[in-house]
């Protein structure tokens, strides 16, 4: 019975752990791949924001960046 309770407790709390730490790249190739991924994500965010209603709450949350013109 104790084993069952401990295993259920372990499973229940495993979702509460923070995301694993992602170390910084160490090679030029890894840095390039990281920067390419950041650029791709930002381009996708901009593309999606262009299609959104600019008066919506979601646009305010997902598309506004500090320093953007109003």
Description:
There is one protein chain. With 70 residues, the protein is mainly alpha-helical. 63% of the residues lie in helices and 0% in strands. It is built from 3 helices and no strands. The protein has helices at 2-14, 28-51, 57-63. The mean pLDDT is 83.
- Contiguous low-pLDDT stretches (5 residues minimum) are none
Q: What distance separates the N and C termini? A: 61 Å
Strand content: under 5%
The total beta strand count reads 0
Return Rg in Å: 20 Å
Can you give the helix content as a percent range?
55-70%
H/I helix tally = 3
What's the mean pLDDT score? 83
Q: How do the SSEs run, as a string of H and E?
A: HHH
Can you summarize the main beta sheet?
none
Structural class computed from helices and strand pairing: mainly alpha
Shape: flat
Please supply descriptive tags for the structure shown above:
70 residues; mainly alpha; 3 helices; 63% helix; flat
Topology (elements, then pairings):
Blueprint: H1 2-14, H2 28-51, H3 57-63
TL;DR of this structure?
This protein has 70 residues and is mainly alpha-helical. The chain has helices at residues 2-14, 28-51, 57-63.
